[in-house]
Amino acid sequence: MNRPPSASPPFAVKICGITRVDDAVAAIEAGVDAIGLNFYGKSKRYIPLDAARQLVTESMARSARRVLWTGVFVNASVDEIAEHVQRVPLDIVQLHGDEPPEMVRLVRERVGSTVRVLRAVRVSQKSLAEVADYLEVARRANSEPDAVLVDAHATEEYGGTGKQLDWTSVHRDLAILGSMPLILAGGLTPENVGVAIATSGVQSVDTASGVEEAPGVKNHEKMRHFLSESRRAFALQG
């Protein structure tokens, strides 16, 4: 049931770690493509399943724009992921922990091929070589994700740290990933996202802490600014 990756990422701009309906609606109205809901219990942006379901329901009732709802999971079981996909419901599953490569295939077999599966890789070196190594193992396991999200490595933390990657190295190494879409995360803010896109050459970005007043509490003006700067930079790519 494996599906080969597309050359295009599933979204251009994603705001992650949303916990409040007002913030979700503001993100949707600003033009975001995807919203991330963090289901990792130790995260500062954790949202319980029932609260997430209510947030999605109320947000969709208040805004006619359609976005992709993304569930962020860290070392969760296939059963837990499947329950969240069904009950929220989710369009995208993002594996952000230490899951083995075959987990992508197992999730896809359980939730169906219409739900896209992303794999986050926390990069610790100034190179995408470790991402390429992961993808080679995933190919052999018939378990390629729909896209890879790269984030800065932080000990005992799974994203949302505000740490940045080396954007020049990302651009240099893009070719080694072949047709696999790449999503850039890690320390992106309204002030630097334009430079990050121009320098790295990516077509998709993801932010959480960069548009916040506090963990899980988004600043609406920062979200609008992040969206406008991202769109401007993508347009200049041609």
TrEMBL record:
It is an enzyme of class 5 (isomerase). The keyword Cell membrane does not apply. It comes from the Bacteria. Pathway: Amino-acid biosynthesis; L-tryptophan biosynthesis; L-tryptophan from chorismate: step 3/5. SUPFAM superfamilies: Ribulose-phoshate binding barrel. It catalyses: N-(5-phospho-beta-D-ribosyl)anthranilate = 1-(2-carboxyphenylamino)-1-deoxy-D-ribulose 5-phosphate. Residues 13-227 form the N-(5'phosphoribosyl) anthranilate isomerase (PRAI) domain. One of its GO terms (molecular function) is phosphoribosylanthranilate isomerase activity. Keywords: Amino-acid biosynthesis, Aromatic amino acid biosynthesis, Isomerase, Tryptophan biosynthesis. One of its GO terms (biological process) is L-tryptophan biosynthetic process. Its EC number is 5.3.1.24. Pfam families: PRAI. Belongs to the TrpF family. This is N-(5'-phosphoribosyl)anthranilate isomerase. It comes from Pirellula staleyi (strain ATCC 27377 / DSM 6068 / ICPB 4128).
